[in-house]
Amino acid sequence: MPITEILQKNADFYPNDVALAEINPQFEDNRKMTWREYSLIETGKSNVYKREITWGEFNKMSNRFANLLLTRGIKKGDKVAILMMNCLEWLPVYFGALKTGAVAVPLNFRYTADEIKYCLKKADAKVLVFGPEFTGRVEEIFDRTPEVQTWMYCGEDCPSFADSLDRLITYCSSKAPDIKISDDDDGAIYYSSGTTGFPKVILHAHRALMHACMVEQNHHSQTKDDVFLCIPPLYHTGAKMHWFGSFLVGGKAVILKGVKPEWIIKVASEEKCSIVWLLVPWAQDILDAVDSGKINLNDYDLSAWRLMHIGAQPVPPSLIERWKKVFPKHQYDTNYGLSESIGPGCVHLGVENIHKVGAIGKAGYGWEVKIVDPDKNPVRRGQVGELAVKGPGVMKCYYKDEEATNEVLKDGWLFTGDMAMEDPDGFIFLVDRKKDVIISGGENIYPVQIEDFLRKNDKIKDVAVIGLPDKRLGEITAAVIEVKEGMTLTEEEATDFAMELPRYKRPRKYIFADVPRNPTGKIEKPLLRKIYSSEHLVAMQNEIK
What confidence tens digit (pLDDT) does each residue in 346-383 have? Predict the structure, then answer.
């Protein structure tokens, strides 16, 4: 069944139960976004603001938004893009789009104006719903993006070029539109990218969205009484698909706007959160805060917290060993997935397999996996090959890109581009990534984008951007720069030049050296990683000593 029916079911069974809560530990009175059904709660605590909606309100809000879209001519199969920070409005907008039969298109809130324009065009988006944080970026492109017919603003002080969602939605019916949706209908588009840095448009059917709900609930046994703490961005498949397990059973979710360790612990305590999904840096920050005394666990009631799980990047076994010493009663789990497989869960460790920390696990619920050689033949256990997955959560295609689709989809199998091996017990370990994408703090960073920018510097002859291991972030971005003969370039100058890049794309380390290329002209990045990862690891070890 389509995922929209779960929302209707929850509204029918639990109309007055809290579905979503938004907590902003440092609320500033500059973003009062209210729809009339909202229950606004002043907590009475300094610098904290909380809003809640019930399942009944959630469903009505989604219906109102769906009916608003219909007044704008949106029909089944049209694309509705969402560009908002995590907030209480995000999920009702997402489900409202789905209820019209349209395709929901979440956008990365880190995108620059040009990247937003590119993604809107690639997806054929007819509507963009955006929040106050993006007014400047959207204003740069709204008159250069003819594909978008409606610009819809969610918040106060609506810009002149957009329609006010808050105002218009109050005139719309709260009854569900009478639109039939099947499992095979297009449901959502997510963006991915390889080393070229140009996002691929990943199209998923409703069947895949529904399978994500079933996978997550099967893996982590959510019940109606569980409370899910959601911290990562909702545009990403990771956060939303983990929440889907709670959504399936009508459990409450808390959206925390901030990642400081004391905020995470405080909210987990006060909201009685039982499931918390973290990125590696956040887990490390929590442990560091406990070790330093900044957080005294005796000040909090964390008795409800039963599961901590991590995804989006390789997890150091030492981190989990350290976590279990501080939180011995916690279950731990990790998942592997990619946007092309509707996010986490196609490979799954399992809470019962903590002795295998370091592995990504075995085939997840409803999934098949295999590891193959370059000819797509299965390899023996212990041999390294490319990981392939198959199941109801595999994407339909890269939207309007048959060539790219055929490269990764064959006979229902999705070839991930990740190199892996299977141990004698059948557990899968990632060995390396076939692509050059850098994963830093759970975010994908695409080297070619940074290289193209740095090459604009007149003093740079050549540049290669690689990932180096980092204890907290998993990897950091390093730029190997070959300076033009007769010129000099300092690290300070390179740092200043890179300030025009978004913060998360700026290199954390600069290495001034020759950039090796092979006979076909390609940069030999494996060689660079081998050289500088070793040097960086030695430097890290010396620093620890």
Answer: 999 999 998 998 899 999 999 999 999 989 999 999 99
- Spatial distance between the Cα atoms of 300 and 134, rounded to a whole number of angstroms: 36
How far apart are the C-alpha atoms of 226 and 273, rounded to whole Å?
Answer: 7
Number of helices and strands (H, E) in the chain? 15, 28
| Domains and their CATH numbers in the chain | 4-18+55-222 (3.40.50.12780), 335-433 (2.30.38.10), 442-544 (3.30.300.30)
Q: Helix, strand or coil for residue 113?
A: helix
Query: Could you write out the three-class secondary structure of 266-297?
Result: HHHHHCCCCEEEECHHHHHHHHHHHHHCCCCH
Length of the chain (residues): 545
Per-residue model confidence as pLDDT tens digits over 289-329: 999 899 999 999 999 999 999 876 667 787 888 899 999 99
* Element (DSSP H or E) covering residue 261: helix 261-270
Q: What is the DSSP letter of 155?
A: S
pLDDT > 70? residue 282: yes
pLDDT exceeds 90 at position 271: yes
Q: 317-344 as b/e, with b when 16 or more CB fall inside 10 Å?
A: eebbebbeeebeebbbbbbbbbbbbbbb
**8 Å CB contact between 208 and 395:** yes
Q: What is the pTM of this model?
A: 0.82
Q: 194 pLDDT band (50/70/90 cuts)?
A: very low
pLDDT at 162: 96
Tally of CB atoms within 10 A around 53: 24
Q: DSSP label at 536?
A: H
Q: Which two tokens stand for residue 196?
A: 């070229």
Pairing of strands 18-24, 49-54: antiparallel
pLDDT band at 195 (very low <50, low <70, confident <90, very high): very low
Q: How far is CA 442 from the centre of its chain?
A: 8
- Sheet containing strand 150-153, strands side by side: 163-164, 150-153, 125-130, 79-83, 103-106, 186-192, 200-205, 397-398
Terminal Cα distance for the chain, rounded: 57
- Locate 108 and state its tokens: 């990365």
DSSP code, position 100:
T
Residue that is written with structure tokens 């060993």 in the block? 321
Nearest to 294 by CA among 265, 323, 324: 265
> Which run of H or E residues covers position 24?
strand 18-24
* Residue 406: other Cβ atoms inside 10 A: 11
**Residue matched to tokens 């918040």:** 155
Whether residue 80 contacts residue 70, with contact meaning beta carbons closer than 8 Å, is answered with no
Angle between helices 206-220 and 237-249 (to 10 degrees): 70
Residue with tokens 């399942």: 55
Distance between CA atoms of 534 and 384, rounded to whole angstroms? Answer: 22
Could you give the angle at which helices 280-292 and 317-326 cross, rounded to 10 degrees? Answer: 40
